Amino acid sequence: QVQLVESGGGSVEVGGSMRLSCTASESTSGFNCMGWFRQASEKQREGVAAVCSHGGSTYYADSVKGRFAISQDNAKNTVYLQMNSLKPEDTAMYYCATGYGGAWYRGEQESLNAWGQGTLVTVST
Prior knowledge:
This protein is mainly beta. The protein has one helix at 102-105; strands at 4-7, 10-13, 18-24, 33-39, 46-52, 58-60, 68-73, 78-83, 92-99, 114-115, 119-124.
């Protein structure tokens, strides 16, 4: 089973930027979609962003559109999440995952086939 390792979390002030990385133990070019979920305290886990192999389409949650950008480096088996103009409501544990696009587009998280251990992002005022 593919292993996913996230890095890049930490604390940042409101309006700041942060980049998360997720490196897979096998080639990312074989994944249907790869991306990020997040879960804030006492809230449900939500899809944040994903990049899919079919046409290189990307998904972004409405709450992060225009602020976050997902990119993929297949040579490094890594997906990145560049987060700009961070807000306190972006504070959450961020998880990398692979699976079918329905997990992000339709909330079908049961279709995901691999998860990382998570990295904490804290946005402070």
